[in-house]
Amino acid sequence: MLKFGGTSVGTTAAIRQVVKIVKQAQGRSSTARVAVVCSAFGGVTDQLIAMSRLAAADDKHYRALHQAWFQRHTDVIKELLHGKRQQRVLVHLQKRSRHLLELLNGVYLVKEVSPRTLDFIVSFGERISNYTLAAIFQQHGLAAEYLDAREVVRTDNHFGQAQVELDLTYRTIQRYFRERSAIQVITGFIGATADGLTTTLGRGGSDYTAALFGAALRAKEVQIWTDVDGVMTANPRIVPQAFLVKAMSYHEAMELSHFGAKVIYTPTMQPAMERHIPLRIKNTFNPKCPGTVISQTPKASPYEIKGISAIDQIALLRIEGTGLVGVAGIAGRVFSALARQHINIILITQASSEYSICLAVVPTDAMAARLAIEHELTFELRARQVAPIIVETDRAIVAVVGENMQHTPGISGKVLAALGQHQINVIAIAQGSSELNISVVVARGDIQTAQNVIHNRFFFTQTKTIHLFLVGTGLIGGTLLDQLQQQRQTLKRDYGVTIRVMALANSTKWLHNAEPLTLTAWRSQLKRHGQAMHLTDFITHLRTSRLPHSMFVDCTASEDIAEYYHDILQAGIAIVTPNKKANSGPWQRYQLLQHTSQEQHVDFLYDTNVGAGLPIIRTLKELVASGDKVRRIEAVLSGTLSYIFNSYTGRKPFSQIVQAAHQLGYTEPDPRDDLAGMDVARKLLILAREAGLALELRDIAVENLIPTVCQTAATVEEFFALLPKADILFAKRYRQAAGQGKVLRYIATLERGRAVVQLKAVGPEHPLYRLSGSDNLVAFTTQRYHTRPLVIQGPGAGAAVTAAGVFANLIRIANNVL
Ligand code: ADP
Ligand code: ASP
Ligand code: MG
Hints:
The structure is a single chain. The protein is an alpha/beta fold and 818 residues long. It is built from 28 helices and 29 strands. The chain has an 8-stranded mixed β-sheet with strand order 3-4-2-1-7-9-10-8, sandwiched between helices. A 7-stranded mixed β-sheet has the order 20-19-18-17-21-22-23. Strands 12-13-11-14-16-15 form a 6-stranded antiparallel β-sheet. It is elongated, with a radius of gyration of 36 Å. It binds adenosine-5'-diphosphate, aspartic acid and magnesium ion (MG). Residues 5-8, 39, 204, 226-228, 231-232, 234-237, 261-263, 307, 309 line the site of adenosine-5'-diphosphate.
């Protein structure tokens, strides 16, 4: 028994694929017979419903929809069939189409569509698709016949969701098949009452039709062909890391599907289970994949749960009041009242205090459910034993499902911890009495994150997946992306960390995708496929992506971006950045960010703000956290100025040394940015704040090294032309220092609450005396390190070491998560 869903017959390419599959199945066995059940072409059922609703709402647009419907089928028939066969099917379509239009016109006239009429209208979807497919199979040499399931599937008259009379149906099917040998191409989803009225078996009902035929005919297997590899650990559209579940039990499949996994329709499992017929979910577009087998005794799985599913909109009804305490039977009365109205209860929770009962229903049932309960509890409501029923819409349910749960304690704890860590509030929690599922109600807005974090928790304890959103693809950002690409394998193998870059941006363009970006050619991709960059779009994307373990990496020097840090942290997204602007801006913002990071338990790491990859900020934080008191900080914090003064030995003029540094690329494009000392001042400010001082940038006394004679220079060239005029000044300071056996260093000092950045002469006893190259050096003198300071020294500038520092911060966060 083969069933093809709407997506498998959605396009002509897909239909060709279906023909191949059916041919192969037929060819494989000479004895076994093949039968096929098909849905309407993808999307058609929705369109038929839409037409009916428009017509009932007095909206003439139903005619355009009908026309499009007709055209779509005509196109398929013309493309896949030819000759007389094409003619015959086209005539058939035209007849059905006219009939459908008459029905819709009728609806339009009476301005209402009853469930009974609606069922009849939607039946056109499956009827046309299967009639057409039977002809297509014939054209490919298969002995195929169209079977309208209404001839054999007998149901009650609960339109929209009819119940099948199993025994009668089975017998009729068996009789029908006994007399025929051709491949039957059967309309899924539809049936008929004893009076011959058309009914449907509920949305997604073609799966159920296939199981009914499979059970009646005692099929070896029922194959459900769809557009995914099988039942996955979660809906792959919502959880990109979801993977195939190879085997599961009927009960597990039922629970997953009940809580929203529409890959298989819940009632499908019933007939299959009764007759022990395995169900196999397969991918029409990837037939080689073995798919998922649903059976009585599935193979064991190493995971605690089989999968996660979700219903993204439900309504929650709360019945509360003293009247519920200790009074037997209220819950029972409520359930019966709802059952009488055919209202399906998705989930029930009862507080152990018995003071409240919570029921989840689909939103369209919410009002009817409320009325039914109010009616049932009229007396209790009037006597105020029960409070007015509260209806909360905008709720959603996530369920974790699996039989292994029965033997594993702590599953609900894990679910709650995963949600709690991501600030997702749990509104209600229920465990099915079979211990096959735990379901939690959350706010609708949280549903996607909830599924992802739970999925991560149960299926990726070995690997940690980090989602990165990066702005700034200049030297540092670019190098970081390259390093990420090079280290991918090692990270995964040795650290169990997968870093997925989900978006990247420079000042003009940005690139993002639902799938992680490939980093092998990010430069050209950004150039070619990037959209125009607007910071607000990027931030909105970041905040609404809601992927687990999201991180924002800011490799710019932009002040504007720093403005968003607070919102980003507030959204539970970690920030890693070499950008100093946020931490050296207003004290108040610095403090707010620190506070938010602590409060939200979300990392804000900026070790590369000072000394690139050197562990300066981290060490300072640890000293402070362990109760040490900082007495003095003395530091050379600019690689450029370090290089300039370490190379200035009085032999070459100062101006030439600056020139050389410029040519070596050691300075900013405009060397005045280095010489002004503001960058060093910002770094010192950050250190001061980390040491606990509430300073502002203006509190720092900075010696500006741009000589007065150069201050009129408009361009870098002019600056260099004027710089030699200052050579004597620097030479004089150098000689003075040398006379005392000292050297010049541009030093940032923090002592007794005063922060100063200036060019100073230091003697051989000073830690900064022996500095060389472009090294940074920080000396912390503290309560503990008071005789000799704690010194950190090393290369403190350059793209490679800075990017490596950012990288190290990412890994630190990855190691803390989960
Ligand atoms: P068909 O048209 O073949 O009946 P459906 O759209 O009804 O297909 O069902 C397949 C879809 O079910 C998939 O495309 C996927 O988006 C969704 N789905 C939801 N949960 C799961 C899951 N756990 N595993 C696989 N697919 C799922
Ligand atoms: N065509 C029906 C629906 O869309 C039945 C099915 O696809 O299974 O609900
Ligand atoms: Mg389906």
